[in-house]
Amino acid sequence: MKNLLVVSNLHVYFETPAGLVRANNGLNLHLEEGCNLGIMGESGCGKTVLVYTLLGLQQPGKIITGSILFSGRELVNLPEAELNHIRGRQIALIPQNQSTALNPLLKVGEQIGEVCVNLNRPDIRLEGARRLLSDLGLGDIHSVEHILKSYPHQLSGGMRQRVLTAMALLSEPDLLVADEPTTALDANTRTTTLNILKEASKRTSLLVISHDLPALKTLCPKLGVMYAGRIVEYGDTLSLMSNPLHPYSRLLMKCQQAGDYLDIPLTGFESRDLLGDNEGCSFAPFCPQATGICFKELPLEVCLDNSRVVCHLYTQSGMKLC
Ligand SMILES: Nc1ncnc2c1ncn2[C@@H]1O[C@H](COP(=O)(O)OP(=O)(O)OP(=O)(O)O)[C@@H](O)[C@H]1O
Ligand code: NI
């Protein structure tokens, strides 16, 4: 299948008073057209930085090198005017926090109208939004009308999620990025959100960032595990879950089985660890299988059947480099 997104050796650094924060540090990933990809990793490993970099929304003070090919087009260093054309149109975002993502002072219908104007698509206007909202699980047209005339605070979490998803889908994007779509939701809203995203994935490819492994299992056939600014393992979601290869992935899966929540750092890894220019593997200090080389040399990516893993355990065994 053709790749929609190929990220190669992406570095996103921030200059801060404490030093250089290496938030994405040699990150590789690819997403095939029509195939959803999930990314999981504990808090602070650089997931949201990746999302904002894909959308060209990083703040001043950052240094970005590497390559982001989207539909064959290089996004790194693309002029703002051209990025503007891609952002929100070909790549859309459902932001992390649905309760603050909508303007509390404007009715939902007005906000959707604004999106249409920004997209320069007056043709889709509210008619398209009505259809989308109804396709996203509001079969009853009166409910749709009710939503359009409501202020965000008058809606339930599930309804706000439908509105945000409908707004993101209005431009018929090729890629929809959802940053932590189920975090901090009650069980009902979480189920609704998963159904909405499933419906959305009939129209577009999804990149889902989440701590919620069961949600990723439901939505994404492919999974990337992220640690300290890198994807350390990539593969089929089901096989990665049942047979993780990277020692960090093994730890993640074990914690999930035990029901631990990944907002709590599970390795003792802290943001300040992104400050050092590690010679070796960032996970080595926490890795039960680390050997001398892990502290000295950065492991290269190794390709196994359907997966990729960045770990000396596999480079040492003579497996094929990607
Ligand atoms: N503009 C910035 N300037 C300096 N450091 C930044 C900036 N943006 C992000 N960072 C740092 O980059 C690191 C990664 O942050 P990021 O928000 O991507 O984490 P995350 O994986 O999304 O975590 P969470 O799961 O908690 O959302 C953090 O240490 C953060 O403090
Ligand atoms: Ni985040």
TrEMBL record:
Matching entries from PANTHER family are given as: NICKEL ABC TRANSPORTER, ATP-BINDING PROTEIN, OLIGOPEPTIDE TRANSPORT ATP-BINDING PROTEIN APPD
Q: Does the keyword Transport apply?
A: yes
Catalysis: reaction(s): Ni(2+)(out) + ATP + H2O = Ni(2+)(in) + ADP + phosphate + H(+)
User: How is this protein positioned relative to the membrane?
Assistant: Peripheral membrane protein
Its GO CC terms are: plasma membrane
Q: Where does the record place the ABC transporter domain?
A: 5-253
Q: Which organism is it from?
A: Dehalococcoides mccartyi (strain ATCC BAA-2266 / KCTC 15142 / 195) (Dehalococcoides ethenogenes (strain 195))
- Give the record's GO biological process terms: peptide transport
Q: What class of enzyme is it?
A: translocase
Q: Which domain of life is it from?
A: Bacteria
Q: What is this protein called?
A: Nickel import system ATP-binding protein NikD
The protein's location, in the record's own words, is: Cell membrane
